[in-house]
Specification:
single chain; 91 residues; alpha+beta; Alpha-Beta Plaits; two-stranded antiparallel sheet; 4 strands; binds iron/sulfur cluster; 4Fe-4S; 4Fe4S_Fe-S-bd
Length: 91
């Protein structure tokens, strides 16, 4: 989704850089360019692009990422926004 931006300053995405091992899994699974690859770690480059799907946190082997609600499914998050209901992935 080129040009997509979440409401500025409200996303809950957090990264603990001390836990990050640099595997880059979060970059692979994130549907938006939220993260930036560093030499041996990642950084959150653009948090306002995060839709709080939780795919990164659920796939991080070190537990370095935290996001709420983070159900692990972008479609569920978007459906929750449209229907104004709690996100739920039933795939
Ligand atoms: S998935 Fe976790 S450990 Fe891997 S690069 Fe991302 S934050 Fe670091
Ligand atoms: S919660 Fe989803 S959109 Fe946000 S950084 Fe993680 S994978 Fe990307």
């Amino acid at each position: 989704m080129t040009g997509f931006a979440y409401i500025r300053g409200v996303t809950t995405i957090e990264l603990d850089p001390l836990l990050c091992n640099g595997c880059m899994m979060c970059i692979k699974v994130c549907p938006h360019p939220v993260f930036e690859a560093l030499k041996r770690a990642v950084a959150i480059r653009e948090p306002n692009l995060c839709i709080e799907c939780g795919a990164c946190a659920l796939n991080c082997p070190e537990g370095a990422l935290n996001v709420n609600p983070g159900v692990g499914c972008a479609a569920a998050i978007l459906k929750g926004w449209v229907t104004r209901s709690k996100p739920d992935c039933s795939c």
